[in-house]
Amino acid sequence: xxxxxxxxxxxxxxxxxxxxxxxxxxxxxxxxxxxxxxxxxxxxxxxxxxxxxxxxxxxxxxxxxxxxxxxxxxxxxxxxxxxxxxxxxxxxxxxxxxxxxxxxxxxxxxxxx
Amino acid sequence: xxxxxxxxxxxxxxxxxxxxxxxxxxxxxxxxxxxxxxxxxxxxxxxxxxxxxxxxxxxxxxxxxxxxxxxxxxxxxxxxxxxxxxxxxxxxxxxxxxxxxxxxxxxxxxxxxx
Lengths: 113, 114
Fold this sequence. Notes:
heterodimer, A: mainly beta, five-stranded antiparallel β-sheet, B: mainly beta, four-stranded antiparallel β-sheet
């Protein structure tokens, strides 16, 4: 079935350290993956995406890694800042072309000063 | 440009009532998707509309329905409300084209059923 899971529900890091948030997915046919950030009282905000034909993609302070062999996705945030505190969700599009996202349960990232 | 606008932001309804939520997508976006977010189930896909047609549907009962208008604005309706329908309802818009998955979410409508 379709499911996207996350390894940890909470993650606490020191300000300035790097954060790694992990996600496992079950559908090997998934075509497209997205990481979202959700702050309290707001909707999910796009961070970075990656297609299934790629292994790595970098943005500003963020990197997404995709390991299709073990169906694992990770989000790396460099030099975390207080503003990075939020819940992070991975999401996948299970069928190519389908306008439908399957979300993981989310990881709450807390930045300690 | 303006983002995705959802109204109202908050709603309190009584069991058995019905409710209608509204979503205005980003200008030019033709696809509108709806998601339900709860602490227990997380974010779950409800349905997606493109050019006034429902294109995809999630695993929700028939009490949950939606529609899209010619200007791409969408509404979702929940009839015979249950306590378990209390959730944050999120709308996302995109161009709807297969090669472009750029989804943008609104801030949601917080529905509380009492």
